[in-house]
Amino acid sequence: MAAALLLTDAEPETRGFLERHLPRDGFELVPAHGRFDLVLAGDVERVDRWLARAPVIVLAREEADSVDCIHAFRRGCDDYLTRPFEYQELVERIRAVLRRARPREGEIVEAHPVRIDTRTRDVRIAGSRVQLAQKEYQLLLRLAREPERVFTKAELLHDVWGYRASARTRTLDSHASRLRRKLREAGAPVALVENVWGVGYRLLGVMPLEP
Predict the structure, then answer these.
(1) pLDDT, tens digit, for every residue of 132-153?
(2) N- or C-end of the chain: fewer Cβ atoms within 10 A?
(3) What is the distance between the alpha carbons of residues 131 and 112, in angstroms, rounded to a whole number?
């Protein structure tokens, strides 16, 4: 089945080019009211409405700088390209983000009191549903799959954000902070996402449920 992409870029030249070429590479372009697997956004300031629904790749303006890139990742975007970009690089980045976001079919991940249904992306704390942005969800899922393990920051930046090398960024810390707050507001008995000083993160005080 072809991956469904939502293209929100209003710039006519870029939009027209992508509308011609993306279907040739096996992608389906769909309207905003439909179901989509990934968003190609032309404006980082308007991505909040999409972040809870699908991964987002920002196609930034030519005059954008590193501050804009950092801002996009802190908002929860999955990737960032500055124009002009190489079309084939964009295609490979789309495929990489889709691979990272694709759940294992029908998998239920449980690390009490966290329960994640990867088919529906439903996250619950002791039965109460939690609304998470895309990157918050992916971070929690990575931690919950191995709840006794301490993940290094480099591992999480690679597994969740696709960073190829260690990077000086607060992206992980800001997402972990928001995730911790949302889980606590949903009824978690402790601040589940623990920062292990000098190492990284783990889920605190949880264990996989017995089968």
Answers:
(1) 988 899 999 999 988 878 999 8
(2) C
(3) 18
